[in-house]
Amino acid sequence: MNIVECIDIKKTYQQGKVEVQALRGVSLSIRKGSFVAVAGPSGSGKTTMLNIIGGLDSPDSGGVMVDGKALGQMNQSQLANLRLHKVGFVFQSYNLIPVLSALENVEYVMLLQGVPAAVRRERAKAILDDVGLEGKYDCRPAELSGGQQQRVAVARAIVSDPSIVLADEPTANLDSQTGKGLLEMMKEMNKKKKVTFIFSTHDHMVMDYASRLIQIRDGLVADDQVRES
Amino acid sequence: MVLQLGWRNIWRNPRRTVVIMTAVIIGVWSMIFLGALMRGIADQMVRNGIATLTGHIQVHHKGYRNDPVVENSMAEPEVVATALKKFLPPDAHWTSRVRVDAIASNARHSGGVTLVGIQPRREAKLSFIGQAITEGRYLQHDEKHGIVVGKALVDKFETRLGRKLVLMSQDTDREIASRAFRIVGVFRAEMEATEKQFVFVTMFAAQEMLGLGKGVSEVSIIVPLHREVNQVATALRIELPASNYDVHTWQELLPMVTAVLKMYDGFIFIWFLVVFVAMGFGIVNTTLMAVFERIREFGLLKALGMKPWWIIREVLTESFFLLILGMIIGNGLGYLSIFFLSGSGIDLSSLAAGLEFAGMSRVIYPVIQGKDMVMANLVVFILGLLVSLYPAVKAARFTPVEAMAHT
């Protein structure tokens, strides 16, 4: 079953007086439970594609379906609801709210979803344990290393069982060892919880972990390989 | 957790929080303290007005207020006395007076005064004169030739205690009546004009001099509680025949004071608004800075699925804490300032002549009124939250992509 369907997506940005064609007609389908890397050089359109799949941005033309729902027909409030319940995000940086502890950061999404306090606390603790952060519940982001912060971000992204997790260059700011640890953890979560992971990267180590590698160049899909995981 | 987040967010930049809180504190303090001072001035004006031979309610003969001459006296004061016994609350006081315009003269000077014939014991419970004697003594019951005059009049007439003062006025036969009195006491009043205007003799002496018999010019009443004034006045208006008697409350007798009180209400409101406008700019500016510093964070929250309304709520929660903290401290400081000044007041005697012109006292005692406190706090709280809406809405309007791309 496909969790994401993109049909001929085009997106042009105005950058000052210059028009930048970020996506020139991308079509692809992603199956539920896959671990997909969207790779390509800077400015190739990876982030734009992830933003469009996550409902953060809208295409100029073409259509996107996430978990059977057409994003083009949704208003801002419905898109916010979709992001809240169906999509988890992990960004390159500025991922966590600095005044909240690790546990509270994970809880916050569930608070927005209206999950009762006791339930969300229990679930947040369990997921933090799963990503290897037991005993770090009360640490604020500034007290955690870059890798640990990204683990908290992954924990927050998967805590409410979303259909997909979109990770925009999650290892870009991490050293290779820490990045590897984070990828292994994400892969484990993918297997254990059957969550679909789609991440953008231009790091070869990250690409090696993907079960499917989509290469984007100049706003078009240049290559699409399914690999043995 | 929303409250927790708001509370922690305001302490992300403690210096900025302290600056804006100081603005709120000074704003609230000045609203409360200066409001209390203005109320104190107004309160003293009312007290002075009431104590300067006005009382809370006065009963006159029908035509007396328009033409305060001896012919317009109340010939049968017992009718009023009977009505008063019937309607006055137990702790109320009342007295009768003869009050006419007269000319006072001695060997050196002469000038217009108001001759007030009083019942010494009763009068002492109503007006300032009972506690105002600074030299000599107060009048005694049925005293025929004693007179109490103001210090300013003594100076003007270059006279002193024990000297004679001749009073002349028109009697009931429209003839000139005059009598020589001996100064037995000198009084000081809050205002110099009062010291120059009023001379006090016993009611008995005034009635005898003017040929009034038992007639009196006015009956003045003090009731224990302000709220009883209108109630008692209405009862007296019903009881006393309208063809012969006029009943007036102090608001009607002192129209200037009543007008000034209304004006003060307006002044206080305008003052609150002026303070708030200054403070409001501070709040908007600081909140905007805080919002722009955290644009990426708001972008993240929106990406996570936070709706614009929730972002507005978060920014307003932070303003709520700033305002509440500022209000608590500002109220506390306001109370303390008023408490320290409640004993000694603010002595403005060096400006006494100017103040007197405005009908103010030499010493101002701040007076806290519940409605002013509530208004000051409501103005700060409600308008504070309203002006915070602007940065809050701005924060909510960024799209996640715009906000996350912000550097």
What does this 3D model show about the protein?
With 229 residues, chain A is α/β, with parallel strands linked by helices. Chain A has one domain: 3-Layer(aba) Sandwich (Rossmann fold), CATH 3.40.50.300. Chain A is built from seven helices and ten strands. In chain A, the strands form two sheets. In chain A, strands 6-7-8-3-9-10 form a six-stranded mixed beta sheet, with helices on both faces. Chain A has a four-stranded antiparallel beta sheet with strand order 2-1-4-5, covered by helices on one side. The model of chain A has no long low-confidence stretch (mean pLDDT 88). Chain B has 15 helices and twelve strands. With 407 residues, chain B is of the alpha+beta class. Chain B has two domains: 2-49 and 257-405, no CATH class; 56-249, no CATH class. In chain B, the strands form two sheets. Chain B has a six-stranded mixed beta barrel with strand order 2-3-8-5-7-6. In chain B, strands 11-12 form a two-stranded antiparallel sheet. Chain B starts with a helix and ends with a helix. The mean pLDDT of chain B is 88. Classes of the chains: A alpha/beta (229), B alpha+beta (407).
Question: What keywords describe this structure?
Answer:
heterodimer, A: 229 residues, alpha/beta, Rossmann fold, six-stranded mixed beta sheet, four-stranded antiparallel beta sheet, 7 helices, 30% strand, B: 407 residues, alpha+beta, six-stranded mixed barrel, two-stranded antiparallel sheet
